[in-house]
Amino acid sequence: MTLFKLKNDRLLETILKQEKVMALAGSMVAYEGSVKFEKALLGGEGLLGVVKRKFTSETVDLMVCKGTGTIYFAHKAKEVSVISLEGEKLVVESSNLLASDDSLKTDVAFAGLRGATSGQGLFTTTLEGIGSVALLSEGNLIMLEVSSSYPLCVDPDAFVGYKGNVRQEFIFDVNWKTVVGETSGETYQLKFTGSGVVYIQPSERQKPQS
């Protein structure tokens, strides 16, 4: 399993020993050793992968980094966090994914109305297995627990990802943005129930300009 560690809160250090990692294209800022970089595709190969990518409104270019050496990754001075998976599945916004262990099974999942309404696109990335994932966030990544007793409600524009036995619903609340002082007219939120953790960032995601 590839070693992921933080050099600081905005720089990921990855040590390869004849291994491979997937990373956001263009996120390599320095490297040492014998490492090759190749373009990769999100969503898997074959017809299903092509269809998924065709209908994903956000474009996420990835690269495969392989060989022996040390690679340093960063992106737009955003905060970096490392999450270890022990056979679990992590669902994450594609734009928040910096790098992942090649041992993890990676796919894309339908986000439906949540993705379309929040301006993030129709699909999110899923990663499953044993390995490490590095995530990007605007500010420190925040982990919130979801329990069977108390549901958790999240602004879709602050949502980063979740893992565990968690169910997600997209709900409307006419008072949601009014109560918190927003006047954009967006009256929706994400509701999580079950048992697990949800990751959010302390900054709302900027919607694409029309």
TrEMBL record:
InterPro entries xref list = AIM24, AIM24_sf, Trp_RNA-bd_attenuator-like_dom
Superkingdom, natural source: Bacteria
Give the residue spans that cross the bilayer: none
Q: Which Gene3D superfamilies does the record match to this protein?
A: Mitochondrial biogenesis AIM24
Protein name in UniProt: AIM24 family protein
Source organism of the structure = Lusitaniella coriacea LEGE 07157
Species lineage, top-down?
Answer: Bacteria, Bacillati, Cyanobacteriota, Cyanophyceae, Spirulinales
